[in-house]
Every structure is written in C-alpha cells, then in structure tokens.
Amino acid sequence: MFPPLQLPKAQLRLARRGKGIHVWCVLRKKFLLLTPEEWVRQHLIHFLMHHKGYPQGRMASEYAISYNGMSKRCDIVVFNAEGKPKMIFECKAPEVQLTQKTVFQIAQYNKVLQVERLIISNGNQHFNFELSEDISSLIMQNGIPSWTEN
Question: Could you tell me the residue ranges of all domains in the chain?
Fold first, then answer.
C-alpha cells in the first residue's frame, strides 16, 4: 500500500473508514486520512518520540501560523520548555523530491516562528538545516538530531 521509508517501522494504529484508511495521530489525538504525506509525518513523529527521545508533549502536528495574511500549517513543530518553537519539520510524500522550493517553504514558516533548526523529509531523504549565528544562512547538518533541552 505505502512504500517502506528510510525510518524505523512505526507501530501505527490504522482503521478502515468508508473507502479510505485512516491513521491515529498521537499528537492530534484523532484519526486522519492516510495519505502518502501523512504516512511520512506519522513515521517521523514516532521516530522522534521512540528513537530520538523527543517528548510527545513538546510536539505539535499541523501547527497553524499566519504568513503574509495567509493561513499556513507547519507539519511538525517542536517546542522548548518555555513553550517557544525550537524546530520545524516539513514532510513531503515519498515520491516528492526535496528541492530548493521545499527549503523556501519551510524558511517562510521560519520567518514567523524563528526557530534554530529546520528539517525537511520525504521519508527517504532527510535534510537538517541549522541557522547561522547571524541568521543570514542555513548550515546543513548530518541526520536528525536527538532531543536536547537546549
């Protein structure tokens, strides 16, 4: 049905509803239609929690922001202890190439949230960018970082 990803297999709770398959989102606490992008998002959420130590209570999925008067949604936002956004994750379907356009999209979100790290993933490729000290450029880092409180 959905292709294997370059992430550990997640124990997803699936349910057939009508003509579609739905997946339980542990962050939003509801069933969502299982699209290819949702497949990636849910695997990434489980990977962050179960393999990288991210606290479930510090993450939000489909986090709403307003950018240039338009309503946008960040796929995953991670918060620090003070409730300030710390990281943004942008997920794409496995068949979608991660391009400069994807980086531009997440960078636009960051104009609103002003986080220190941006990560894009299609489940098979993961690109991790850290903002330079003067926040004028993105510095590519290796892998998806483990949770740290800082």
Answer: 14-141
- 133-136 long-range contacts (CB < 8 A, ≥24 apart) are none
| pLDDT tens digits for range 38-70 | 999 999 999 999 999 999 999 999 999 999 899
Distance set, CA 19 to CA 16, 33, 34, 79, 97 (Å): 7, 10, 11, 36, 28
Residue at 111: amino acid letter: K
Look up residue 106 and give its two tokens: 């997440």
**What's the CATH code, domain 14-141?**
3.90.1570.30
Q: Which two tokens stand for residue 80?
A: 């620090």
Q: What is the pTM of this model?
A: 0.93
Q: Give which of 136, 127, 134, 130 is closest to 148, Cα–Cα.
A: 130
Residue 84 carries which side chain, given as an amino acid letter?
A: K
Here the tokens at position 48 are: 């962050």
